[in-house]
Amino acid sequence: MRGLGIDLGTTNTVVGTLEDGIVLNEPSFMLVRNKDPHRALAIGKEARRLIGRTPTGIRQVRPMRDGVIVDLELARAFLAAVIEQAAPRRWYGRRRKAVISAPAGATPLERRALLEVGHEAGLRKVGLIPEPVAGALGCGVNPLEPRTHLILNIGGGTSEVTAICFGGVISHRSCPLAGEELTEALHQYLREEHQTIVGELTAERAKMGTPDTADGESLVVEGLDAVTGRARLLSLDVGEIVEALRPTTTGIVQTLTACLEDLPPQAISDVMSEGVLVIGGGSMLRGLSQLFEESFGLPVKTAERPLTCVAEGATACLDHPEIVAAFSG
Predict the structure, then answer these.
(1) CA–CA separation, 153 vs 145, rounded Å?
(2) Shared-domain flag, residues 314 and 293
(3) Is 204 found in the same domain as 80?
(4) What is the pTM of this model?
(5) How far apart are the first and last CA of the chain?
(6) Which domain holds residue 97?
(7) In the chain, which residue ranges form alpha helices assigned H by DSSP?
(8) Interval 138-165: pLDDT, tens
């Protein structure tokens, strides 16, 4: 194994290798004991299942927020557990290299924190690549070619739109409205309009259940009646869920379309022919591509593998260090 490509996301962490492709795809959650908060008891799906039901003396933590580290020690413990789970022990002991994705808008301090955590977690050599660049590469786009590509990344904590060309960034805009805010918007809507209180996991499932459900069909949501406190099953039309999320999705679009104003005319010409590439979990929501096309006035293409393309691109960078070097400034 020559190295790891790692997408440390707010919602999910994905790891790939050149030999085996994606080897780990887990929620970015970790369980720790209060007495020993910097050692992972469990990570990923096992830790996420305990949302709302964590035993006394154990707490659930998320070391990443908005795609960047919020606690160095927690992030180190989490990344060490991720590497141990994703890579063979014989590989882990040799302290190999990795390429880790970072938000395009990450500050130098946030980027330095990622490098520090990578080294402390057992990696010998760590390279950083902007998430939109990695996502584009994972979708077959060459970020070094003299042609402008516009990438829209809707992650769990942040939405970003970035224009890249010839190994550099032409324009970049970001906003704090993303997947988590969409989940919270649906949670609030159900409470205010249907007097139903649901858990975070239930709201997440209802939100992400919309792409594969046909128009006119309904989703069943479990929760508590806010008036009586009793268990309740609520049937929601797919169209109602889409409308409940529309104010948040519109806010994302309004913020990100400003990126187009920064582009020179020739770059706009490239984007008009190539279209806008949308990556990240938020791209899977029903009606979002149509909303972006109407707002941008440009064709929109959703990545075939929106949840893993960033890790795939980071992994590909192991064979293309020139891409990491080009975007390291």
Answers:
(1) 20
(2) no
(3) no
(4) 0.93
(5) 28
(6) 4-135+309-326
(7) 45-48, 72-86, 89-92, 108-120, 131-138, 179-194, 200-208, 238-256, 258-261, 265-274, 288-296, 309-316, 321-326
(8) 999 999 999 999 999 999 989 999 999 9
